[in-house]
Amino acid sequence: MSQNEELNPLALENQVCFSLYSAANAMVRAYRPLLDKLDLTYPQYLAMLVLWQHQGISVKTLGEQLHLDSGTLTPLLKRLEGKGLVTRGRSETDERVRVLHLTDAGNALHELAKEIPTMMRCKVGGEPQEFMQLKLLCDKAYQYLNKA
């Protein structure tokens, strides 16, 4: 990199956003062959991660955890429901609230997905401490960018 590029705030090489964008795209591409075996897209996989942890979660809470609005989340959930992995019902305490439950097929998929994080760590390489540091930096950036 030349001295001129180092000083240029508009040089692509100096953009943190481009590094994050490139890394995120590469990560999703690396997940694709693993998720194809489960017949899940990356966003569907993220939703399933939350649902495997929180049975009976509300649609609203799922959206908050995934940082997705209802316009994005609803079609994703309809596809998961169409695959027979999730059912959407009404809360027993508040009829207005939609809750999500995994089907037997959705629970069975959990077993098949257990090896994915380890496989991804092998693909990416690096030390566990580096992954934790990267995650913390990304979380911090997200928090800064979403301050009211």
UniProtKB/TrEMBL annotation:
<keyword id="KW-0963">Cytoplasm</keyword>
<protein>
    <submittedName>
        <fullName>MarR family transcriptional regulator</fullName>
    </submittedName>
</protein>
<keyword id="KW-0238">DNA-binding</keyword>
<dbReference type="InterPro" id="IPR000835">
    <property type="entry name" value="HTH_MarR-typ"/>
</dbReference>
<keyword id="KW-0804">Transcription</keyword>
<dbReference type="InterPro" id="IPR036388">
    <property type="entry name" value="WH-like_DNA-bd_sf"/>
</dbReference>
<dbReference type="GO" id="GO:0003700">
    <property type="term" value="F:DNA-binding transcription factor activity"/>
</dbReference>
<feature type="domain" description="HTH marR-type">
    <location>
        <begin position="13"/>
        <end position="143"/>
    </location>
</feature>
<keyword id="KW-0805">Transcription regulation</keyword>
<dbReference type="GO" id="GO:0006950">
    <property type="term" value="P:response to stress"/>
</dbReference>
<dbReference type="GO" id="GO:0005737">
    <property type="term" value="C:cytoplasm"/>
</dbReference>
<dbReference type="InterPro" id="IPR055166">
    <property type="entry name" value="Transc_reg_Sar_Rot_HTH"/>
</dbReference>
<dbReference type="GO" id="GO:0003677">
    <property type="term" value="F:DNA binding"/>
</dbReference>
<dbReference type="InterPro" id="IPR036390">
    <property type="entry name" value="WH_DNA-bd_sf"/>
</dbReference>
<dbReference type="Pfam" id="PF22381">
    <property type="entry name" value="Staph_reg_Sar_Rot"/>
</dbReference>
<dbReference type="InterPro" id="IPR039422">
    <property type="entry name" value="MarR/SlyA-like"/>
</dbReference>
